[in-house]
Amino acid sequence: MGADEIEEYAEAIDMIQSPHKVTITIMCRDLADMDFGGKSDPYAVVYLKGEKDKKWCKLGSTATMPENLDPNFVEEFEINYLFERNQIIRVEIYDEDDPQRLNDDLIGNFDCPLNKLLTSNNQTIKDNLRMKSGKSDIRGRIYIIANSVSESNDIVKMDIVCRILDKKKKDKKGFLCFCRPPEDNPFLVIEKQGPSEGERRHNWVEVFRSEQ
């Protein structure tokens, strides 16, 4: 093996062994209603289990979505993906009853190998939420969406100006949504494209909302 081949081989091994950063976001549909006389107030908790230590590491949790059975959680969770390593993601969905989150009801959970998610169509997995005990009852549907993190640190600055916005109307075309509520106080929403759902071509997930 020549010097050039050895160098190329070393670079390939380094790429395989080096972590690749990805982010995941969570969506749910048709969640079980855990509250009497109202809808569930769901939030998600995300864990990762590595191949070596076999322990679950908490990556974080989302904000609570009050009375929402179809939440699009906006938080992103960053993971160092290691090629050909058995890394497992666990997502637990709870109904918040306690502001301290100490005695909340578990709606359901879902485990997914990270490499399966990254090799799925559009890097998106859809499945059913179930209880930890493995009961057959379905508690809703969950979507996990992965995105690769660019190594670029470039910053894009945009100045956005609107004129004569119609009241009570929303322009949902594209990734910018301009809103003008009845109280005449416009604000800006930026959304990213999520997985397709049913007959809808796109499902848009809110990632930013300006102050009103």
TrEMBL record:
InterPro entries: C2_dom, C2_domain_sf, Copine
Pfam families recorded: C2
Protein name, entry field: C2 domain-containing protein
GO BP: any one term: cellular response to calcium ion
Record's GO cellular component terms: plasma membrane
Coiled coil: none
One GO MF term: calcium-dependent phospholipid binding
Residue ranges annotated for the C2 domain, each copy included: 2-129
UniProt xrefs under Gene3D superfamilies: C2 domain
Domain of life: Eukaryota
